[in-house]
Amino acid sequence: MAASVFESQHLAKLFPTGELGRLFTDSAEMRALLLVEGALAKVQGELGVIPAESGAFLHRASMEIQIDPAGLAEATGANGVSIPALLAAARKALEAPEHAQYLHWGATSQDILDTALMLRLKQAFKVLEKNLMQHLNNLAKLADLNTKTPMPGRTWGQHATPTSFGAVVAAWGQPLLALHREAEGLRNTAFWVSLSGAAGTSSALGPKASETRAALAKALGLTDPAHSWHGDRTSIMRLAAWATRLTNALAKMAAELGDLSMTGIAEVTLGNSGGSSTMPQKQNPVAAGVICALAAQANGLNSTLQAAAAHAHQRDGAAWISEWITLPQLILGTGAALAHAEKLSSSLSPNPEAMRGALTAGNGLIYAEALSFALAEIMPRPEAQAAVKELCKQVGETGQELSDIAAKAYPDLAIADIFNPTNALGAAPDEARAFVKAVRAL
Asked: Where does 203-316 have alpha helices with state H?
């Protein structure tokens, strides 16, 4: 098995990363690093921090030169970061020492690496937002078509009271709706530029340090945090937590679809199921399983990131390196989970007959609560509960339907209405409609 499932040729379709995969490659990182170095030189030239001619030259050249990531390996292994080797290779490729001397002026390796990471993360989150919106639209369509499609609700894994499939879909979508709303705040505040120098004091950047950082942020389309964040990983933690919550929300849907598509129940049909190597009849909920596995991974990775967020002193190498190991995997896993979820939500379909069958499979016991409230209209509530409990006991002893036993015991009750699933849905249809309305308002 490959070291990373996301880079495995034979597992690629099982863990699809799409556009995200291209953002977390060595070549993409090199391009982002050079883009940051070029933009820094450009704004410093415009502000008079370095010669304007050198700033313009370095900015233009940064978009043209090519750096071989493999050529940086030896020096990176010794230095712990790739920037020294990158700068040496870039200065050699520039063949203009009079300008090259101003490359990386006043910055430190972490400034460039963190800023380049933020550029790629911002693109990655745009992709996630786009795919999340498509998934929400799929769920809204599904909820709208099934606002009153009755099915058993479940608590502790057992049948509870009736609900509607539309409400179940809405419950899958509500956390995603909240995440979508939060994404705008992240977009405007969480993607930080870094430019603080060796120990976060900006001492080598001169009197225009703050102005330079603000100009660099504007040039790159990032946010100026107005302070050094070498040891303040708030933005990284926020982005990682958002991605983890998204994956967990998708896993709720995936886990429930796995249950609802079980043989003998099949209350839903999944559009993209997998086959078995030896059992021809099997239609495995592969996508649902992958999403749940990715959620488990995301929680572990996020735990590592959050634990590593207490960077010691002004800069912390070990804590920082922990981010390199975990964050790309977390984002790629989120993207793969979302890709599977979007396909599921666009292709799954409910089986209303199986859902109705599940409602009646337990001798009508799912309506016990509704029956007790109907009785509470003609007797005190505690007595009604005790009476229904006794009726349920008779169901277990005789195997008769609860509705038949209740009709004999209380002939004046409107039994047909009490045991009608569409009358037992409560606010479920409203929950579904509210979700649909909220998605369509985005």
From this structure: 209-220, 234-260, 286-307
Residue tagged 């302070």 (tokens): 227
Superfamily of segment(s) 362-440: Fumarase/aspartase (C-terminal domain) (1.10.40.30)
pLDDT for 175 equals: 98
Mean pLDDT, residues 268-292: 69
Instruction: Answer yes or no: same fold for 5-141+161-355 and 362-440.
Output: no
C-alpha dist (Å) from residue 332 to 18, 121, 271, 287: 9, 11, 24, 16
Note the residue count of the chain.
442
Q: Give the DSSP H/E element, type plus range, for residue 391.
A: helix 381-398
Q: Where are the domains of the chain?
A: 5-141+161-355, 362-440
φ, ψ of residue 207 to 5 degrees: the values are -65, -15
Q: Tell me the per-residue pLDDT of 32-69, one tens digit each, with 9 for 90 and over.
A: 999 999 999 999 999 999 999 999 999 999 999 999 99
89-103, 170-184, 277-291: which range is least confident on average?
Answer: 277-291
Average pLDDT over residues 118-135: 97
Distances 245 to 7, 176, 205, 236 between C-alpha atoms, Å = 24, 9, 39, 14
- Provide φ and ψ at 185, rounded to 5°: -65, -40
Whether pTM > 0.90 for this model: the answer is yes
Contact of 48 with 58, CB cutoff 8 Å:
no
What per-residue confidence (pLDDT) applies to 189? 95
For residue 53 the two structure tokens come to 């001619």
CA distances from 338 to 19, 274, 306, 341 (A): 12, 18, 22, 5
Identify the CATH homologous superfamily for domain 5-141+161-355.
Answer: Fumarase/aspartase (Central domain) (1.20.200.10)
Residue holding tokens 């109705």? Answer: 356
Question: Rounded to whole angstroms, how far apart are CA atoms 17 and 133?
Answer: 17
Among 212, 210, 213, 220, smallest CA distance to 50 is for 212
How far apart (Å, rounded) are the C-alpha atoms in residues 234 and 244?
15
Q: Which of 42-46, 280-284, 436-440 has the lowest mean pLDDT?
A: 280-284
What is the C-alpha to C-alpha distance for residues 410 and 293, in angstroms, rounded to an integer? 51
Please state the three-class secondary structure of 410-436 as a single string: CCCCCHHHHCCHHHCCCCHHHHHHHHH
**Would you say 371 and 389 are in contact if contact means Cβ atoms under 8 Å apart?**
no
Cβ 341 vs Cβ 254: under 8 Å: yes
- pLDDT, average across residues 169-180: 98
